[in-house]
Design goal:
- This protein is α+β, with helices and mostly antiparallel strands and about 600 residues long.
- The protein folds into 3 domains: about 325 residues, TIM Barrel; about 110 residues, Sandwich (Jelly Rolls); about 110 residues, Galactose-binding domain-like (Jelly Rolls, Sandwich), CATH 2.60.120.260.
- It is built from 11 helices and 33 strands.
Length: about 600
């Protein structure tokens, strides 16, 4: 079995046009994989592409995870069972609007500089690839599997120009038994193509763009004519952006089905395509990334990553799906296509509150071993990846009718309390957080709840000190730094440790407990979050992601396989002191503007 890349793609010496769709196994639960994969085939696709996030598979250094949602081999096999080829993009940097671009947090403690030849970084990559790539190797097309080709790094031309760095990755990949063709992907601009390609090492260059196929491919044609005359190469858009991702507080990004289909048709007239995204899915837990620039500031991505792609977040086809299927059929690029799988989410009955407890009252069981230090520590110094850190002064602060409290050098979202009474909230800022306070008695302690809203996933700030979360400096009362702090780590991957036997108090962060009882097999559903403030939700112990009433999403998706027949426990952690008395459900996603 042979997959060749010459003037075009060849499978067993027969030319083929790859019609691929991006579908991230880690952004949808395993129970939904088959529906999404089948629907890619039903649209006319013959290939599925996925990134591979390092932080999912090695969450702590030397501790590897390939189970359930991280079971990449099972996903690859399921794609093969659905008649699809596979393209893999293992990074190790993936961008993908994913937390820290896919890097595990612990690299901030163990390396000097990611995306470089730093020996500590390259050793960490080597250790990871030595585990990951042998799991992929048996699924290569050359071994009878569906995997056609594998990417080297990711859009490196928009970041660096170190060809030795790329060669090191190529050598590492080959040493781990990968013998299928390799490729790079870069923006359709000659400087990016020049800096990011590894053509001299036999690696195929592909492009990323969302419009103007003729002009974009001309950039590659012109580069090849100037630097590799006579070289045979195919044309492929490895990321055709059929829409875009969303940020908090902004209307959802939309792209019409008609425009998308027209632009896709133009790509297919010239070469192959990978739709980014075919199925966007969900940023479960705290895995959303963030973008940052001096001009636009810091903008974390939202939980829903549906991307306005051909499949909705719950893997059902939409108008864009139909328009693209029509284009593929009109161009004679698909045989008889199966009908898509369509599921119907349920609007379950409203459930009342079962119990509630304030964060401060359940700390002894939720974080029973706080770390004490003379100065505040960062999340990384606490060996904590994601979530929240609660800082609390060990001793009372100085009594004063008027005082100023300043938090130095933190870009997290911060909530300030005095003896558990809220004082002020600040979002991302490069400036110190400074506010006037009154300290009426001599027994007042400071509490600061710091939320890691997502590390930057793209651009030059990937290597910035901004990537370190929590409080990087200190906390001052007037001119003096306050010494000695307790650190309560709140990673909140699960709600384990929450004690609902303790008291609830108004205007404080709190946990709310609900029970959803199902008398038959579960269906997908959506939780109404429009009036719930801000926080995260756990369904049967699984963190389905962040919510925030500023939108654009006014519901949160719950895949059916997170539920079960019988009793289901749903716990909401809300940080703004907004009381929650009931949980409502919807049979569809609801976004700002009523869409």
């Amino acid at each position: 079995m042979k997959f060749d890349i010459r003037d075009q793609f060849y499978i067993d010496d027969q030319p083929v046009k790859l019609i691929s769709g991006a579908l991230h196994y880690f952004r949808t639960t395993p129970g939904k994989w088959r529906q999404a994969l089948h629907n890619l085939r039903a649209m006319g696709g013959n290939t599925v592409e996925t990134y591979i996030p390092w932080n999912l598979h090695e969450p702590e250094q030397g501790q590897f995870n390939f189970s359930w949602i991280a079971d990449l081999p099972a996903f690859i096999q399921m794609a093969a069972d659905e008649g699809l080829y596979v393209i893999l993009r293992p990074g190790p940097y993936i961008c993908a609007e994913w937390e820290y671009g896919g890097y595990p947090y612990w690299l901030l403690n163990t390396t000097k500089r990611v995306r470089s030849q730093d020996p500590q970084y390259m050793q960490a990559v080597t250790d990871y690839f030595n585990v990951l790539l042998p799991k992929i190797a048996p699924y290569q097309y050359t071994q009878g599997g569906p995997v056609l080709m594998l990417q080297v790094e990711n859009e490196y031309g928009s970041y660096g120009n170190d060809k030795r760095y790329l060669q090191d990755h190529i050598d590492l990949i080959r040493r781990n038994g990968i013998d299928i063709p390799l490729f790079t992907a870069d923006g359709a601009w000659q400087p990016m193509i020049a800096d990011g390609n590894a053509i001299d090492q036999g690696v195929t260059e592909t492009l990323t763009f969302g419009s103007d196929a003729a002009g974009s491919f001309a950039e590659l044609d012109d580069y090849m004519a100037d630097h590799h005359p006579g070289w045979e190469y195919p044309l492929m858009c490895m990321e055709f952006w059929d829409s875009w991702f969303n940020n908090w507080g902004k209307p959802p990004v939309r792209r019409s089905a008609e425009e998308t289909a027209s632009e896709v048709g133009q790509v297919l007239d010239r070469g192959s395509i990978n739709l980014y995204m075919f199925h966007g899915g969900t940023n479960f837990g705290f895995m959303n990334g963030a973008n940052y620039s001096e001009k636009d500031g810091y903008h974390p991505q939202v939980t829903a990553y549906d991307y306005d792609g051909p499949l909705t977040e719950d893997a059902n086809p939409n108008k864009k799906f139909a328009a693209l299927r029509e284009v593929i059929e009109e161009k004679g690029l698909a045989g008889e296509l199966p009908a898509p799988i369509v599921t119907q989410p349920a609007a379950y009955p409203t459930v009342p509150l079962r119990d509630k407890v304030s964060l401060f009252n359940t700390l002894p069981t939720l974080a029973p071993d706080p770390v004490v230090s003379d100065q505040p520590l960062t999340m990384e110094e606490l060996h904590q990846a994601y979530g929240y850190v609660l800082y609390e002064s060990v001793a009372p602060i100085r009594q004063a009718e008027e005082s100023r409290l300043t938090i130095q050098d933190s870009t997290d979202r911060l909530q300030l309390f005095l003896n558990h009474t809220w004082q002020a909230t600040r979002g991302f800022s490069l400036q110190a957080f400074s506010t006037k306070i009154t300290v009426p008695t001599a027994d007042m302690h400071v509490q600061v709840l710091s939320e890691n809203q997502g590390r930057i996933n793209y651009g030059p700030e990937m290597i910035s000190p901004l990537q370190r979360r929590g409080i990087r400096g200190g906390i001052r009362q007037d001119s003096a730094y306050i010494a000695h702090w307790r650190h309560y780590s709140l990673p909140l991957q699960t709600p384990a440790g929450v004690d609902f036997n303790q008291d609830w108090a108004p205007h404080q962060p709190a946990f709310y407990w609900f029970t959803l009882t199902l008398d038959k097999a579960p269906q997908d559903t959506f939780i109404d979050i429009a009036k719930m403030g801000k926080g995260v939700i756990f369904v049967n112990g699984f963190n389905i992601g962040r919510f925030w009433e500023i939108g654009p999403d006014l519901t949160m998706y719950v895949p059916y396989d997170l539920l079960k027949q019988g009793q289901n426990e749903i716990i909401v952690f809300e940080t703004e002191g907004r009381p929650i008395s009931e949980l409502r459900f919807s049979s569809r996603a609801v976004k700002m503007e009523g869409k």
